[in-house]
Design a protein that fits this description.
Chains A, B: Residues 3-80 form the GST N-terminal domain. Chains A, B: It comes from Phyllotreta striolata. Chains A, B: This is glutathione transferase. Chains A, B: Keywords: Transferase. Chains A, B: Its EC number is 2.5.1.18. Two copies of one chain form a homodimer. Chain A is an alpha+beta fold and 214 residues long. Chain A has two domains: 5-75, Glutaredoxin, CATH 3.40.30.10; 83-188, Glutathione S-transferase Yfyf (Class Pi), Chain A, domain 2 (Up-down Bundle), CATH 1.20.1050. In chain A, 53% of the residues lie in helices and 9% in strands. Chain A has helices at residues 17-25, 40-43, 65-75, 83-108, 112-139, 151-166, 177-186, 190-198, and strands at 5-10, 31-35, 54-57, 60-63. In chain A, strands 2-1-3-4 form a four-stranded mixed beta sheet, with helices on one face. In chain A, a hairpin with a 2-residue loop joins strand 3 and strand 4. In chain A, helix 4 packs antiparallel against helix 5, helix 4 (83-108) runs parallel beside helix 6 and helix 5 crosses helix 7 (177-186). Chain A is globular, with a radius of gyration of 17 Å. The A-B interface holds A 48-50, 62-64, 66-68, 70-71, 74-75, 83-84, 86-87, 90-91, 93-95, 111, 113-114, 128-129, 132 and B 48-50, 62-64, 66-68, 70-71, 74-75, 83-84, 86-87, 90-91, 93-95, 111, 113-114, 128-129, 132.
Chain lengths: 214, 214
Amino acid sequence: MPSNFKLIYYNLTGRGEPIRMLLTYGGVPFEDSRFEWDDWPKIKPTMPLGQVPVLEIDGKRYTQTIPLCRYLGRMLKLDGKDDMENLAIDSAVEILWDVLKVAYERNWETSDEKKKQLDAKLHTLSPLLLGKLEEDVKRNGGFIALNRITWADIVFLCSYEDMMNLVPEKDPFEGFANLRQLKNKLLENENLREYIKKRPVNKMMNRFSLISDL
Amino acid sequence: MPSNFKLIYYNLTGRGEPIRMLLTYGGVPFEDSRFEWDDWPKIKPTMPLGQVPVLEIDGKRYTQTIPLCRYLGRMLKLDGKDDMENLAIDSAVEILWDVLKVAYERNWETSDEKKKQLDAKLHTLSPLLLGKLEEDVKRNGGFIALNRITWADIVFLCSYEDMMNLVPEKDPFEGFANLRQLKNKLLENENLREYIKKRPVNKMMNRFSLISDL
């Protein structure tokens, strides 16, 4: 197992937080290198592909959140035991990411007309996809992909927090008791509790932070 | 290994083609169930999450293109031999998907103003991301992620064809000799050649089809 991890990302949750939370859950020490939004133009040219998050693993730089989460999931034995199990994990994560993507897109949209369209898309997609995951959690004895915790559950926890911030006018988890229970169960983990208490507050958590659920 | 595969998707390349091409490359027989665009409203309510592609594996239905490609990649031994190798494959695929997503978005966009923005985004992103892959292919002895063929190369081949159709005003692979060479090398595969000759022509290939490169 590599011994040196450094995460470079905005002082935001977003695409960096699942990596931070996975390392935290696994008890892997890492340097949490955060920068403020205004500093990005300075930093961008120094990053591979001009993108963050970047995870440095033993000094080598890697990009792309989900591939990195999958990698860390395997490293921490939070993956599946066979191909079918890994397919279940990957599919759950894609579903989470699909709904988050629309929520972000809507959040950033500046044209009123387009925002309305994205509103409509989100309000169809969110109950559909979260409803599917709710059923899965029910069937899987409380976890999102398999009958035990996997890296998809950690991605879910971060998605939960972001969705609560991105969809402020309505609780997107209303009526999804199993997803809420999963969130609460994950928040029993001591490593995550410590991290959530200590992490810097940032402007993506202006409406909701998991700290209120500890 | 499961024995029964059926792919349900539009009569288009898009998100279905990498699954078709992987099964084809691996010599795995599958039912290629295609429907026309106009029939989608009838079919949508019968699909899990109202989405396609759907791959039926021994009668069970699965969605999500990339998780399915990863699954098939493992099944066909076109995956990495360890976590780091799989991270390289996953990252390459994410990069391909990132550039394709913008190309699709731009293609579908109806507002002139927004289309202009997406134009600008695509024309920055495409050379940057494809340029990164070009370097990777050069370093990897002709393949996109590792020093041998992986499922990322098959995803690349499909992305190549779609990009050629989605960015008609300029060849997006101009100047990327290694990517073009990789495409040509993949097209030497007999299974792929047979498939490409026989597959139905569809309206996504109105500008370019791999058949012209055989």
